[in-house]
Amino acid sequence: MNLIIDVGNSRTKYAAYQGQNLLRTHSEDGHALGVLPGFVGTDTVAAVMVCSVVDLDSAACRHLDDLGCQQLWLDATTPVPLENCYHTPHTLGPDRLAAAVGAWALMPDCNLLVIDAGSCVTFDIVTSQGQYLGGNIAPGMHARFMAIDRFFPRLPLVEAEGALPEVGYDTETAIRAGVVQGLRREIEGYIRHMGELYPGLETFITGGDELGLDIHDGEHVHVVPDIVSRGLNVILSYNLGLMAQTQTTT
């Protein structure tokens, strides 16, 4: 079994894979890895891939060491099955690269737009030749709500959940519709524009806010919530294959 651990700023996500088949997932607040022993249970972990945007403390690292298996940490030096054309790979968020690999693994011969609607919204491009070109970063849904509250003292902090008319009929619905509908139109605009630039474009959408945006699967739009963990599993398998080849030749 391969174990995937995706450590974000506020939450940690776990995924277990047998080959490319997803067995189960879990998540927890923070990044103490406290649920790791229970998530693994009695299963044997062959290798673990860690993708982290924070430095783990010693207690969390001990949970990893207790697995007694090979660890791979995704960073700018980790080989991936895409050509990384990003000019500053050391500044590239590993989750962006992992999502790109996950989309490419599902449709390797297509031009791809990968949209991750999380704390930030990222728009990344992978070509049909297997080149990760990079992409754009914009504020996420909740960051937009918070910005309105912070920079406009007379306007309230509004929650994403609630009435969502096309045209707001009071201040609360005007803000909610402006943020949610605006982000939706932004994403739809990216899909249209990138489709004009990259023929046969396939779009993958993931992230914590994608369900609230009401952007559905279509002929060329695919909502895949676990695409980051799938990409991390592909990267892990790819590196294990490289290591096996090296051992064979030596």
Explained architecture:
By secondary structure, this protein is of the alpha/beta class. 35% of the residues lie in helices and 26% in strands. It is built from 6 helices and 11 strands. It has helices spanning 36-40, 58-65, 94-106, 141-151, 171-197, 227-249, and strands at residues 2-7, 11-18, 21-29, 47-52, 70-73, 83-84, 112-117, 120-126, 131-139, 202-206, 221-223. The protein has a 6-stranded mixed beta sheet with strand order 6-9-8-7-10-11, sandwiched between helices. α3 packs across α6 and α4 crosses α5. The model has no long low-confidence stretch (mean pLDDT 92).
Total strand segments: 11
Mean pLDDT over the full residue set: 92
Assess the beta-strand content as a share of residues. Answer: 25-35%
Structural class: alpha/beta
Helix content: 25-40%
Order of helices and strands: EEEHEHEEHEEEHHEEH
How is the quaternary structure best described?
A: single chain
Radius of gyration: 20 Å
What is the end-to-end distance? 26 Å
Query: How would you write the strand order of the largest sheet?
Result: 6-9-8-7-10-11
The major pleated sheet works out as:
6 strands, mixed
The count of helical stretches stands at: 6
Index terms:
250 residues, 26% strand, alpha/beta, 6 helices, single chain, 5-stranded mixed beta sheet, 35% helix
Summed up, what is this model?
This protein has 250 residues and is an alpha/beta fold. It has 6 helices and 11 strands. Helix 3 packs across helix 6.
Layout: helices, strands, pairs:
Blueprint: E1 2-7, E2 11-18, E3 21-29, H1 36-40, E4 47-52, H2 58-65, E5 70-73, E6 83-84, H3 94-106, E7 112-117, E8 120-126, E9 131-139, H4 141-151, H5 171-197, E10 202-206, E11 221-223, H6 227-249
Parallel strand pairs: 1-4, 4-5, 6-9, 7-10, 10-11
Antiparallel strand pairs: 1-2, 2-3, 7-8, 8-9
Helix pairs in contact: 3-6, 4-5
